[in-house]
Specification:
about 190 residues, mainly alpha, Homeodomain-like_sf
Length: about 190
Amino acid sequence: MVRAGLSPERLTLAGAELADEAGFDQVTLSALARRFDVKPTSLYAHVKNSHELRTRIALFALEELADRVADAVAGRAGKDALTAFANAYRDYARAHPGRYEAARYRLDPRTAAASAGVRHAQMTRAILRGYDLAEPDQTHAVRMLGSVFHGYASLEAAGAFDHTDVAAQQSWAWTLDCLDTALRSRSTP
């Protein structure tokens, strides 16, 4: 029997909220069942297992992040687009740490290919068109930007920048300036 009010979508959203509150690694069917005051077995009518729940949360987070980034970069180009993309990414990681972690959950190739992760790559490549990078530099740049944004957001979330008087925002702006300079230096003449 399906419990009234429960659905895969509602469980996904509740799981995303739990991830933000307690960490993505704390999202389990048992924890979610406690949230709804039901037995864990009641959830199996809506999701097969914890892996499916985590995958649903990852897909939700990827979609949510892609929507925010798309809104931020709309109508922008060059450094302005790069900065808007980067800020939307960092802001999402700060506002939704558990969802951000979920967006890094390893998906099987078929699920990944159908996810909003593809939109992330497309938006990154769209930003890079403003830098006129030829292949393989464009692919290198996509990987560099993802690595820098993720690394910065992860280190900031872990408190790695709390030991100095220089504000993390100042370092972020400096980092974006350096990325813009590096990308411009690789532009095709």
